[in-house]
Specification:
The chain is an alpha/beta fold and 268 residues long. The protein contains six helices and twelve strands.
Length: 268
């Protein structure tokens, strides 16, 4: 009888162990029964850039019918790293941290939440997202889980690509920087997210994770110093509350950022 009990206990123990998720086990995502949402603006002459950056240019190398009788087109483009929907690599504001090509794919893909602060941002173009705003979201939705991508919706995506409304100014050059007015993430909130929550990446639907009037870009320094990459000028955040994100930048070796194609998978 004693031997039988021992065998039963051992069997139950093995069953319990087998049912526990392993530490290195990757979460699986089923890409069926849902839909993709494009969170990227296209790159064109309308693409918005920082006032001191050169705009996007697409040059025609060849377009038309070749001497061989078939149609052929080829173009070359010129673009700053930081413009339109783009990635900020941590090295952008933190020496020795990941460059664009060094960011692990795991940090560019994963479950995401969208924290909507559009009611506050619409009333104040210089609004900075606070710890209190994040905590209020958590009261309704639960704590931000580990390894989550956090996206902030200010509502400014509805203004793109009107530079005057979206950036606060349509002027170009160094003097125009003083006229930038758009929301961002308060440095205290950045500090809280890096110390109290373990997130993969952060994104926002405006031109910078720091608000337009920032002089020291402290929010950039905090997130990127913690090797947390940023996504800026993210489109269509009004179409999701949470999703699985795939954010793949142009893989520029040693880059401080890159044009970004970011998409979201929504389950039905």
């Amino acid at each position: 009888m004693r031997n039988l009990m021992v065998k039963i206990i051992c069997a139950l123990f093995l069953l319990m162990v087998a049912c526990q998720p392993q530490a290195n086990e990757q979460a699986t995502v089923s890409f069926s029964g849902g839909k993709w949402i494009d969170l990227s603006y296209d790159f064109s002459e309308e693409t918005l850039y920082w006032p001191t950056s050169e705009p996007f240019r697409l040059n025609t190398d060849f377009e038309g019918v070749t001497p061989g009788g078939y149609y052929y087109s080829a173009y070359s483009f010129c673009s700053a790293e930081h413009g339109g929907t783009h990635l900020d690599a941590p090295v952008h504001f933190a020496e020795g941290k990941w460059s664009t090509d060094q960011i692990p794919l795991e940090n560019l893909t994963g479950e995401a939440v969208v924290i909507d602060v559009s009611d506050k941002a619409s009333a104040n173009p210089d609004y900075q997202i606070t710890v209190a705003a994040i905590e209020a979201w958590e009261e309704s939705n639960g704590p931000i889980a580990e390894s989550t991508i956090v996206l902030f919706r200010t509502g400014y995506g509805a203004l793109y690509p009107d530079a005057k409304k979206y950036l606060g100014t349509e002027e170009r050059g160094a003097d125009a920087v003083a006229g930038l007015h758009f929301p961002g993430i308060d440095p205290a909130a950045a500090e809280w997210l890096t110390s109290s929550r373990k997130i993969k990446a952060v994104g926002i639907d405006v031109a910078s994770i720091d608000y337009g009037q920032s002089k020291d870009f402290k929010t950039h320094q905090i997130f990127y110093g913690a090797n947390i990459p940023g996504f800026e000028n993210v489109a269509n955040l009004d179409k999701l509350r949470g999703a699985y994100i795939v954010a793949l930048p142009m893989k520029i070796k040693g880059g401080s950022g890159a044009p970004l194609r970011i998409v979201a998978w929504l389950n039905d």
